[in-house]
Amino acid sequence: MRNEERFNKVYDKLCWCSTSQQNQTPLEDLTEPEPRTSPQEPTRGKGMKRKSQEYLHDKKKPFPNVDNESMGSSRSVNNGVRKKFLKMSRAKFDFYKHALKKNTAAVAKGESSRKLENPEKAKQKIKDGRSAKEQSAEFEAKYVELDQLGEGGCGSVFSGYRKPDNLQVAIKHIPKCNAPVKLQDESGKLLCMEVAVMLKLKDEALHAVDKASPVVLLDWYDLRKELILVMERPIPAMDMLDYIESKGGTLPEDETKIIMRQLIKTAIDLEDKNIFHRDIKIENILIETGSVVPHARLIDFGVSCMTTERSCYRVFTGTPNHVPPEFLTCCRYRAGPTTVWQLGVVMFETFNKSENFTTEKFIGKNLKIREELSEHCQDFLRACLNTFPEKRPKLKDLLSHPWLK
């Protein structure tokens, strides 16, 4: 008798537990996926119409995997929501855990292009397997930095020399925030655009006495917060702005003709290599003064880019006063016609340095070509500064103009 009473009490307690906890989420459902079941009518409200029941089923359910029977009380609804979030969190955790494990194994084998970030930035490998700290130490051991030569929109340039042979160099510091554009080289590495362009300019075919050969990039260092470019520094030399002022504010036609021929040949070389300088002006041209005949050198490729014949640009980068007219009217421009326009601006300022050239003034006829110049020279200027880009001559056609012969 005692055994029967004990059994009945245990049985009643089990029935009460199963009835009171029928809407609670079982423990195993928190770890195992819940199978989708066919929609059932909600049991809330016996006098509910069919249309209202369907609306409650379609619109009021917090999550599609919550049982319809659990809609009878707010406690059961909260359990369903909790259950859904737990399943979502567990799924995300499993996914990231699996991805991290898989990527770690792939990186260890060298089969993955995705590299895990190292929290110690000072030890992060940046260039040729060397850390930023190692590169900084190498730069300080190899070069001595002196006075500042100039400052532009992309960085600052300092004079200096190389310790082993006392070679005079120009050292350019570029904050990484000013060099966001990257270019992939032949080995697949991402390089700063200016570095990638200047590495292409090391070709010996670009360097000749009759060309405005670009300055050569000797070394470069990728540090944590900045890039350091070490370039050759022609001595004696001065930028074309100072050179024109030293000559009284204008240059004679014969001397201008020599400089323009050199610039055009270098512009053709850049075009053949699909390089767009974007900011050719007298401040970005060095004139070597060590010989009787002036020798021009093109510098500052900070806003340069790689281009093609069909490339069209909608954002202007360069000197705002020298913007090509087509950008003011159509908000677009191309590399070839823009380079011809900029060469025309350089030539205009060699004869009219007292007047600051702006595109708006020239279009408004507030700036005029000097009538004292020869007819061929005036015709050459008008061709380069034509307001219609399709009517400007090609770079290669400029060399055959009568004024340059």
UniProtKB/TrEMBL annotation:
InterPro entries cross-referenced by the UniProt entry: Kinase-like_dom_sf (IPR011009), PIM_Ser/Thr_kinase (IPR051138), Prot_kinase_dom (IPR000719), Ser/Thr_kinase_AS (IPR008271)
GO terms for MF: ATP binding; protein serine/threonine kinase activity
Cellular component annotations (GO), alphabetically ordered: cytoplasm
Record has Magnesium as a keyword: no
SUPFAM superfamilies xrefs: Protein kinase-like (PK-like) (SSF56112)
Biased segments, Basic and acidic residues type: 111-131
Catalytic activity: L-threonyl-[protein] + ATP = O-phospho-L-threonyl-[protein] + ADP + H(+); L-seryl-[protein] + ATP = O-phospho-L-seryl-[protein] + ADP + H(+)
Every Protein kinase domain range: 143-404
Pfam families recorded: Pkinase (PF00069)
Gene3D superfamilies: Phosphorylase Kinase, domain 1 (3.30.200.20), Transferase(Phosphotransferase) domain 1 (1.10.510.10)
Biased composition (Polar residues): 67-76
A GO BP entry: negative regulation of apoptotic process
Domain of life according to the entry: Eukaryota
Transmembrane segments: none
Keywords attached to this entry: ATP-binding, Kinase, Nucleotide-binding, Serine/threonine-protein kinase, Transferase
Enzyme superclass (EC): transferase
Coiled coil: none
EC number(s) reported in the record: 2.7.11.1
Sequence segments annotated as region (Disordered): 22-76, 106-131
Family assignment from sequence similarity: Belongs to the protein kinase superfamily. CAMK Ser/Thr protein kinase family. PIM subfamily.
Identification of the protein by name: non-specific serine/threonine protein kinase
